[in-house]
Amino acid sequence: MTEISQQKKVPYVRLGKSGLKVSKIILGTMQYGSTEWQPWLLDEEEAIKHIKVAYEAGIQSFDTANVYSNGLSEIILGKAIKQLKLPRDEIVIMTKVYGTVAREYKTAFWANGQNPDEHGYVNQHGLSRKHIFESVKHSLERLQLDYIDLLQCHRFDYDTPIEETMQALHDVVQAGYVRYIGMSSCFAWQFQAMQNYAINNKLTPFISMQNHYNLLYREEEREMFPTLKLFGVGSIPWSPLARGVLTRPYGDQTKRGTTDPAASRYANAPGTPDVMKRVEEVSKKLGISMAQVSIAWMLSKEGVTAPIVGTTSLKNLEDIIAGVHVELSEEDIKYIEEPYKPTAVFGHMYSNGLSEIILGKAIKELNLPRDEIVVMTKLYNVVGRDFGTNMLLIGKDPEELGYVNQRGLSRKHIFQAVKHSLERLQLDYIDVLQCHRFDNNTPIEETMQALHDVVQAGYVRYLGMSSCWAWQFHAMQNYAIQNKLTPFISMQNHHNLLYREEEREMFPTLKLFGVGCIPWSPLARGLLTRPLDGEKTQRGSTDWFIGRYSAAESTPEILKRVEEVAKKKGISMAQVAVAWSLHKDVVTAPIVGTTSLKNLEDIIGTT
């Protein structure tokens, strides 16, 4: 083996903050198995050739799964280890548990949508204790190994308690069948829930996440990557070449491209032609392949430890391996990323304290009963010294203008902001104090302790959060609960018919914690109250925010349908939009605002 060792080209990196080292490219083995399972797969003889080439190049990490070709992929990998005499002390074998391993290679429950229970596979899928132990046992038999280096949960199991799953995973590690555990293909809120349970109960935590990520699918950058960074967990993305779509000019197809439904999803996604055109341009400019550009881009991302690559061509495998040494310039990275434009989260602020002053005066003048009314306010941003200063729009660092320690969620600012809000409101206490944003510069420990202390001091009754990522909310809430501090009872998030991104991660997170959702802008800054080509309001012509809704591709069709339903029901478009918001099971109460009494009465009529 000495000669082979000297030829190795692929470097090694630690997987997250664990002590396990993996090759910077991991060989995926989904493509090795039976053509009865998928028509583009390689047979055993050809697969072993690929594994040999990969190992000789320095790839010592191999990823498989129990369900790939219903176990045949594991069998082939196990045979390759034996035939090639791959040193067990060096190689890293990763497999997965969750799906059903059918008795025939041609059966693929994950693809045909059938319920395995109805075909005699009861207790043979999911993350129950029984299935985890049985699956590990059978994987070891197929691999002809004594232990698995990294056991990954292929999916999140909605039917099995997290407590049962994490205890079972811990126990297979303790029993010596598995060295490390990881997760695959789940939402960030699910990963947070499982990881926090393990940590809080002194069980084995995940060291890795095998998530879906490439130049044509970058949604993981929103929630998952920050979550992994928070926990020190390594990312080993699957499909870094988008099922091969990123390896050739747009429109060219392979056998897999014509038979694999996932490949067509990439090809038909908005932005794909432009991204691929730019990848092709950069590859020609640098004199390398499109695959190498795509791999180099991925390895440039801070959150990525090692992508999992698979191919049915030895030539392509060697080409991909060479991509590990390619470094793209910042200009090239920016250029190929630019066409991909995920929807951003955005928010707002109120009149440098005047809104609180007006509300306080109204409470006094109208003699509103303090025992009945609920007053909510927020803290985070700078309150300018005059009403004409909008710190969000001037684009300058407030500290340069003399506002040091007057923003964020530090202990000092929390106490000072609460004091000034109470003065402006002319009240003795605030019912719900909400953090307007997440503070990346203040430790969560400091923030949650300070928030707890203003509650204990009697200045505040309850706490809430606003306009943050689900992973941030999860981290803050979990810290409060584990340390017996005051938890959040509410989330004021951005949600309406034109912006529904919160349904991915935030809504399940709120449901998990039993937290109420009070969405802001349920009428999309008034855009949902009138036809798209209707009369513009003063706000509509001056509020830059409205342009972001209007520019969205789906907006015209949604507004058209809201208008149709409104006419059919004999109600206003605003009432349709608010009624839609209220029918979402996580929504407690939307926050509405209008500059017209008539519109306010119309909105109230929704209830």
Strand residue percentage? 5-15%
* Helix proportion range: 40-55%
CATH superfamily of the domain at 2-210: NADP-dependent oxidoreductase domain
Flag low-confidence runs. 1-7, 343-349
If you compute it from the alpha carbons, what radius of gyration comes out, rounded to the nearest whole angstrom?
27 Å
CATH topology (fold) name of the domain at 2-210: TIM Barrel
CATH architecture of the domain at 2-210: Alpha-Beta Barrel
- Structure annotation, total helices: 24
Give the mean pLDDT: 91
Instruction: Report how far the terminal alpha carbons are from each other.
Output: 75 Å
Which structural category do the helix and sheet elements fall into? alpha/beta
CATH class of the domain at 2-210: Alpha Beta
Largest sheet at a glance?
8 strands, parallel
* Biggest sheet strand line-up: 9-8-7-6-5-4-3-10
Tell the overall outline.
globular
Protein name: NADP-dependent oxidoreductase domain-containing protein
Organism: Gymnopilus dilepis
InterPro entries: AKR_Detox_Biosynth, NAD(P)_OxRdtase_dom_sf, NADP_OxRdtase_dom
GO molecular function: oxidoreductase activity
What can you tell me about this protein's structure?
By secondary structure, the chain is an alpha/beta fold. The chain contains 24 helices and 15 strands. Among the domains are: 2-210, TIM Barrel (Alpha-Beta Barrel); 344-492, TIM Barrel (Alpha-Beta Barrel), CATH 3.20.20. The strands form 3 sheets. An 8-stranded parallel sheet has the order 9-8-7-6-5-4-3-10, covered by helices on one side. A 5-stranded parallel sheet has the order 11-12-13-14-15, with helices on one face. Helix 22 (555-569) packs across helix 23. InterPro entries: AKR_Detox_Biosynth, NAD(P)_OxRdtase_dom_sf, NADP_OxRdtase_dom. It holds the Pfam family Aldo_ket_red.
